[in-house]
C-alpha cells in the first residue's frame, strides 16, 4: 500500500519498500550499515551540507566520516556544489567512499540537492547513492527528482519519514529503492523485533484516506504553498523585509529578518520564542552567526546551511494537511509579533522585551486555538518542525 503511494506521488519505478519502526535518521543509518558489507574499504560519506542534526548523526552512528560539501549561493538559494563533490571523489578515491548522501526536502533558502546530477556522478564512479527524502513524498517536485535520478543515474535507496508525510505519530520511516534485493538486504539488517505501531498507524491512515484522499491532500498542500507564499510576500512588503527567492524549494519559504537582526543580537531568537508561546510551534528563526559543534565537527552559521548566509530569516512551510485558516492564523500572529518587536525598537534600543508582552487578544486567540485542537478541528500541522 505504501509502495502504491510512493509510485502515485511520483516515483513510478520504485520496485519495493518497507516500513521501519525507526525515524528517518536511524533508517538512514540502517542503509549505511547495509552498504558497509558491500564496500569494506570505505570510510567516507560525501554529504552536501544540510543543517539538521539527525542527518549528520545518522552517518556518525553508522561509524563513517562525513565529508561535508558546502553549498553554493545562487541568488538567495543555497545549492549543491557539484564540482566540489566530484573533486572530493577524485581526491579520496571512489573505493574509499561508502556513498553519496543527498537530501531533497529541506528548509529554505537551501533547496533540494541536484539529485539528478549527483545520481549521474554516482553512476560514473560506481558509488552508491542514498537520498534523504524526509518530507519529500508530499511534494511532486522532490519525487520527480528521485524518479529522474534513478532514470539517468544511480539511486540505491531513498528514505522518508512516516509522520512528516502521512500525519501519523513520530517513530516510523519508509525505506524504498529500485532493486528488490537491495531493499530486502536492508530490511534483513534490522536486528530483532519491533513495535508494530508505525505500520498499523500508516495502514489505518491510508485505508481511511484511500488514494484519492491522499491525492486531494497533496493538491491542497500545493495550493496552500502558493497562498502562504503570496501572503508572506505581502507581509514582507509592509514590513520592509523580503520573501527570499527560492523557487526550487517546493515546501519551505524564508522571510528575511534584516531589520530585526540589526536591532539587536537576541531580537531574532526572541521572535522565535514569541511565536512558540503563541502556538506557532514549527516556525524556525535563523539568526546570523550561530556556531554549533556536533560530534566534534564545527558548523559555522549553523541552521542556515552555510558558513555565512547574508541575512537572518524565518522559515515557514506548507506541510501536508495544511488548511487556509492555518495560513491566515499564522500570518496574523506573525504580523502581530513582528510589529510588537518593531515598536520595542523605538522604545528601547538595546534589548527588546517583546517576548514578554502578552495582550488580551493573544490570550483570547490562544484559548480559541486550544478549543479548536480539543474539538479536533485543527487536525493539521501548520509548519514542519525542525
Ligand atoms: C531533512 C531532514 N532529514 C531528517 C530529519 C530527521 O527526521 P527524524 O526525526 O524522522 O529522524 C529531519 C527532521 O526534521 C529533516 O528535516
TrEMBL record:
Matching Gene3D superfamilies: Type I PLP-dependent aspartate aminotransferase-like (Major domain)
Amino acids binding substrate: 193
Reported cofactor(s): pyridoxal 5'-phosphate
Location relative to the cell: Cytoplasm
Keywords for the protein's UniProt record, in alphabetical order: Cytoplasm, Protein biosynthesis, Pyridoxal phosphate, RNA-binding, Selenium, Transferase, tRNA-binding
E.C. code: 2.9.1.2
Residues annotated for tRNA binding in this entry: 151, 278, 343
One GO molecular-function entry: tRNA binding
Keyword Cytoplasm set for record: yes
Reaction equation(s) it catalyzes: O-phospho-L-seryl-tRNA(Sec) + selenophosphate + H2O = L-selenocysteinyl-tRNA(Sec) + 2 phosphate
Principal place of residence: cytoplasm
Keyword presence, DNA damage: no
Biological processes annotated in GO: conversion of seryl-tRNAsec to selenocys-tRNAsec; translation
Pathway: Aminoacyl-tRNA biosynthesis; selenocysteinyl-tRNA(Sec) biosynthesis; selenocysteinyl-tRNA(Sec) from L-seryl-tRNA(Sec) (archaeal/eukaryal route): step 2/2
InterPro entries the record matches: PyrdxlP-dep_Trfase (IPR015424), PyrdxlP-dep_Trfase_major (IPR015421), Sec-tRNA_Se_transferase (IPR019872), SepSecS/SepCysS (IPR008829)
Task of the protein: Converts O-phosphoseryl-tRNA(Sec) to selenocysteinyl-tRNA(Sec) required for selenoprotein biosynthesis.
The family this protein is said to belong to: Belongs to the SepSecS family.
Subunit record text: Homotetramer formed by a catalytic dimer and a non-catalytic dimer serving as a binding platform that orients tRNASec for catalysis. Each tetramer binds the CCA ends of two tRNAs which point to the active sites of the catalytic dimer.
Protein name: O-phosphoseryl-tRNA(Sec) selenium transferase
Source organism (scientific name): Xenopus tropicalis (Western clawed frog)
Encoding gene (name): MGC89210
Amino acid at each position: 500500500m505504501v509502495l502504491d503511494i510512493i509510485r502515485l506521488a511520483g516515483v513510478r519505478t520504485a520496485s519495493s519498500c518497507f516500513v521501519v519502526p525507526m525515524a528517518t535518521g536511524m533508517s538512514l543509518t540502517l542503509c549505511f550499515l547495509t552498504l558497509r558489507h558491500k564496500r569494506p574499504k570505505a570510510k567516507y560519506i560525501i554529504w552536501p551540507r544540510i543543517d539538521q542534526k539527525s542527518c549528520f548523526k545518522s552517518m556518525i552512528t553508522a561509524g563513517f566520516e562525513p565529508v561535508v560539501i558546502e553549498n553554493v549561493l545562487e541568488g538567495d538559494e543555497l545549492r549543491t556544489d557539484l564540482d566540489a563533490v566530484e573533486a572530493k571523489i577524485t581526491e579520496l578515491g571512489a573505493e574509499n567512499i561508502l556513498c553519496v548522501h543527498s537530501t531533497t526536502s529541506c528548509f529554505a533558502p537551501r533547496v533540494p540537492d541536484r539529485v539528478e546530477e549527483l545520481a549521474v556522478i554516482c553512476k560514473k564512479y560506481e558509488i552508491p547513492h542514498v537520498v534523504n527524502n524526509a518530507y519529500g513524498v508530499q511534494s511532486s517536485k522532490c519525487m520527480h527528482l528521485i524518479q529522474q535520478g534513478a532514470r539517468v543515474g544511480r539511486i540505491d535507496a531513498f528514505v522518508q519519514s512516516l509522520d512528516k508525510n502521512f500525519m501519523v505519530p513520530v517513530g516510523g520511516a519508509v525505506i524504498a529503492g529500485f532493486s528488490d534485493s537491495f531493499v530486502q538486504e536492508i530490511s534483513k539488517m534490522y536486528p530483532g523485533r519491533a513495535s508494530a505501531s508505525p505500520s498499523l498507524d500508516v495502514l489505518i491512515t491510508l485505508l481511511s484516506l484511500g488514494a484519492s484522499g491522499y491525492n486531494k491532500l497533496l493538491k491542497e498542500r500545493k495550493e496552500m504553498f502558493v497562498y502562504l507564499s503570496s501572503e508572506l510576500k505581502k507581509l514582507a512588503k509592509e514590513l520592509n523585509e523580503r520573501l527570499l527567492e527560492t523557487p526550487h524549494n517546493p515546501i519551505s519559504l524564508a522571510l528575511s529578518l534584516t531589520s530585526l537582526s540589526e536591532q539587536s543580537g537576541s531580537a531574532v531568537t526572541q521572535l522565535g520564542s514569541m511565536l512558540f508561546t503563541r502556538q506557532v510551534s514549527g516556525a524556525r528563526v535563523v539568526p546570523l552567526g550561530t556556531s554549533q559543534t556536533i560530534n566534534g565537527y564545527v558548523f559555522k552559521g549553523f541552521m542556515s546551511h552555510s558558513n555565512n548566509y547574508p541575512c537572518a530569516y524565518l522559515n515557514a512551510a506548507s506541510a501536508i494537511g495544511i488548511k487556509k485558516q492555518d495560513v491566515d492564523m499564522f500570518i496574523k500572529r506573525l504580523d502581530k509579533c513582528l510589529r510588537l518587536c518593531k515598536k520595542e525598537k523605538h522604545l528601547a534600543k538595546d534589548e527588546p522585551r517583546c517576548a514578554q508582552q502578552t495582550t488580551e487578544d493573544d490570550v483570547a486567540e490562544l484559548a480559541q486555538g486550544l478549543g479548536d485542537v480539543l474539538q479536533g478541528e485543527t487536525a493539521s500541522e501548520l509548519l514542519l518542525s525542525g
